[in-house]
Design brief:
The protein has about 100 residues and is of the alpha+beta class. It has helices at about 1-5, 10-20, 25-30, 35-50, 70-95; strands spanning about 25, 55-60, 60-65.
């Protein structure tokens, strides 16, 4: 799952957290960081390629927002993992109580 590799970077996680509050232009996003605008642009491209954000053009501005499908896929994977472990923990609890 490419999304997990992409989210290993704290800058990209911060970008996603920012976009959870609503769409932002690439300039607004870049203004949140001390790294260069081209570096932020590369992070945005990685997030887009992983399907976690999508971009639309508004005149000369690029507006980024979360891609619900990609975020939903990531959440579904986490929920499936949680269900697996929940069953294991319940079984362990049952064994320990006997």
């Amino acid at each position: 799952m490419e999304a997990l590799a992409v989210l290993a970077d704290p800058t990209r996680r911060h970008i996603l957290e920012t976009l959870a509050c609503g769409p932002r232009s690439s300039g607004e996003i870049a203004g949140l960081f001390t790294i260069s605008a081209p570096a932020v642009s590369q992070h945005l491209k990685r997030l887009e390629k992983a399907g976690l954000v999508h971009v639309r053009a508004e005149a000369q501005r690029r507006i980024y927002e979360l891609d619900r499908r990609g975020v939903d896929q990531l959440a579904q994977w986490v929920n499936e993992l949680r269900q697996f472990w929940s069953g294991k923990i319940d079984a362990l609890d049952s064994v320990l109580r006997s």
